[in-house]
């Protein structure tokens, strides 16, 4: 990111699934503190597109006519059809020139944070050195995402990245639609894994925490916390925003 941006540079609009939530607020705060030159906005999508469309209209009013006025960063780790549909509909309703960032993952930084969350819960070794003579707390991990089958396919890459860090089998599943935790657990049981844990590939607001916990309980697995407001997410968001600015030059 450049240290200076013109006053009419596109705003960075973080579009968070669901309603008011502390995690997106904390991420937006990180972005503002580390990038004071960027006009950072936060919109909770809720159940309709009105809030985002209104925000985009407000931003466009202070930008040159016909120029890209904003870059929308959906706060999701992978494809999420509902979130992206709402963002596209809000842009169409506002009639403004807006770019949309891709999902934050799959990315090695996402896998790294998930490793940290597993370690925090006592479900993985904190170091990434693959010492096979040290017993691992679990012998199979389920990467749990939200967004249905498309999100699960993207989470397969995250599963590979996490497996490389932990040196144990890792498979992906969805908390809402598509291959679920029970399907993933059966796959792991077939290859001999019996002590399972769920690693949410979820930032927070895109899934009901109670559903995540219930999914873990239903298969007798441990469960780490969602990714939450981690500095790595802010880094991925601002890097994608900077790439978009570069493409617009």
What does it look like?
It is elongated, with a radius of gyration of 19 Å. Strand 7, helix 7 and strand 8 form a beta-alpha-beta unit. The protein has helices spanning 22-34, 50-60, 81-94, 108-120, 149-166, 181-190, 209-218, 231-248, and strands at 11-16, 40-44, 70-74, 98-100, 140-145, 170-174, 196-200, 222-223. With 249 residues, it is of the alpha/beta class.
What is the string of helix and strand elements? EHEHEHEHEHEHEHEH
Q: Catalogue the unreliable spans.
A: 129-134
Strand content: 5-15%
Helical content (DSSP H or I, runs of 4+): 40-55%
Biggest sheet, spatial arrangement of strands: 2-1-3-4
The count of DSSP E runs of length 2 or more, i.e. the number of strands, is 8
Radius of gyration: 19 Å
Mean pLDDT: 93
List keywords for this structure.
single chain, alpha/beta, four-stranded parallel beta sheet, 249 residues
Quick overview:
The protein is built from eight helices and eight strands, in the order βαβαβαβαβαβαβαβα. With about 250 residues, it is of the alpha/beta class. The radius of gyration is 19 Å and the shape is elongated.
Blueprint of the fold:
Layout: E1 11-16, H1 22-34, E2 40-44, H2 50-60, E3 70-74, H3 81-94, E4 98-100, H4 108-120, E5 140-145, H5 149-166, E6 170-174, H6 181-190, E7 196-200, H7 209-218, E8 222-223, H8 231-248
Helix pairs in contact: 1-8, 2-3, 4-5
């Amino acid at each position: 990111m450049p240290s200076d941006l013109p006053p009419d540079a596109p705003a960075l609009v973080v579009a968070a699934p669901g309603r008011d939530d502390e995690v997106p607020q904390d991420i937006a705060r990180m972005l503002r503190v580390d990038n004071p030159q960027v006009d950072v906005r936060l919109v909770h999508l809720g159940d309709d597109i009105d809030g985002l469309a209104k925000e985009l209209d407000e931003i466009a009013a202070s930008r040159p006519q016909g120029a890209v006025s904003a870059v929308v960063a959906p706060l999701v780790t992978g494809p999420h059809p509902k979130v992206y549909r709402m963002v596209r509909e809000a842009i169409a309703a506002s009639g403004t020139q807006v770019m949309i960032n891709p999902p934050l993952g799959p990315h090695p930084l996402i896998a790294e944070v998930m490793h940290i969350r597993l370690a925090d819960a006592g479900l993985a070794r904190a170091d990434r050195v693959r010492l096979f003579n040290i017993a691992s707390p679990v012998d199979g991990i389920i990467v749990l995402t939200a967004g249905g089958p498309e999100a699960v396919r993207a989470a397969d890459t995250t599963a590979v990245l996490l497996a490389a860090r932990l040196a144990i089998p890792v498979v992906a599943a969805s908390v809402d639609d598509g291959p679920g935790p029970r399907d993933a657990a059966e796959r792991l049981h077939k290859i001999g894994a019996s002590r399972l844990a769920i690693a949410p590939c979820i930032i927070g607001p895109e899934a009901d925490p109670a559903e995540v916990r219930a999914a873990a309980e239903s298969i007798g697995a441990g469960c780490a916390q969602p990714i939450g407001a981690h500095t790595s997410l802010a880094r991925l968001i601002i890097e994608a925003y900077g790439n978009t600015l570069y493409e617009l030059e």
